[in-house]
Amino acid sequence: MKPGLFSLEGKVALVTGASRGLGAAIAAGLAEAGADVAAHGHSRAPDATCERVREAGRAALPLTGDMALEATPDRLVSETVEGLGGLDILVSNAGIARRAPAEDTSDADWQAVIEVNVNAVFRGCRAAGRHMLNSGRGGRIVNIASLLSFQGGILVPAYAAAKSAVAGLTRALANEWAARGVNVNAVAPGYVRTDLTEPLRTDAERNRQITERIPAGRWGEPEDVAGAVVFLCSPAAAYVNGHVLVVDGGWLGR
Predict the structure, then answer these.
(1) pTM above the 0.70 mark?
(2) Which of 100, 147, 192, 214 places its Cα 20 to 30 Å from the Cα of 252?
(3) Smallest Cα–Cα separation from 87: which of 116, 49, 127, 146?
(4) 88 inside domain
(5) Cα distance between residue 119 and residue 216, in whole Å
């Protein structure tokens, strides 16, 4: 194995939704692999995440913004380039969910989920892709998909639709950009302990049903997903394009 096959030394990364949970773990993992990191937060400032990045010996840039606003993804990319001197890696992690039966899902909730989980992801990829294609350095884009990119889920029709779209977008962008030096892939986490999954974990029956189906016998931790993202951003994944890497403890194989 070549030395540095998993090194991100000298790279600059932007992670959206990085104030806690998956995003915070991903930002820290990228920093531990050698990348400087711009960490984005919305409802909560990403200060704690930036401290983890600095503890790894890397530069950190805190960014804020509402991903539901059309201008935010472009601004985050511009501020990363200006603040850290470039952009080599984008991890599109920011996302929201609205839980309700399909017949009770309002237009407002549907639109909110699609805006953040699909439209903002495309806008971020577009802005980062433009920079990477023009920089001469190429780059890596990793979108955070979901098991619901493959399944329908329960009580989350907008989220399932959005994450299916993220998988399709990932493949479409890879088809256009792979030959031009930009690798676009996605990670599809299974059931991971985050704020987003707290309603499932606090529902005793759903928690039991979910845990019993996972061959690994446990819920995932954010760090389980961070390792997969670091791999896709590293030289080790140079020939991986348009792939949705499932990190689910074996759920889909059950």
Answers:
(1) yes
(2) 100
(3) 127
(4) yes
(5) 34
Q: Has residue 203 been placed in a domain?
A: no
Who's near 107: CB < 8 A, 6+ residues apart? none
d(CA 244, CA 188): 6
Do the Cβ atoms of 223 and 194 come closer than 8 Å? no
The answer to whether residues 150 and 252 touch, using CB atoms and an 8 Å cutoff, is yes
Beta-carbon contacts of 236 under 8 Å, excluding residues fewer than 6 positions away, are 5, 6
Position 3 in a domain? no
Domain of 60, CATH number, reads 3.40.50.720
84-123 tens-digit pLDDT: 999 999 999 999 999 999 999 999 999 999 999 999 999 9
The number of domains in the chain is 1
11-32 pLDDT per residue, tens: 999 999 999 999 999 999 999 9
Options 159, 177, 231, 251, the catalytic residue: 159
Classify each residue of 1-16 as buried b or exposed e, where b means 16 or more C-beta atoms within 10 Å of its C-beta.
eeeeebbbeebbbbbb
Is 159 in the active site?
yes
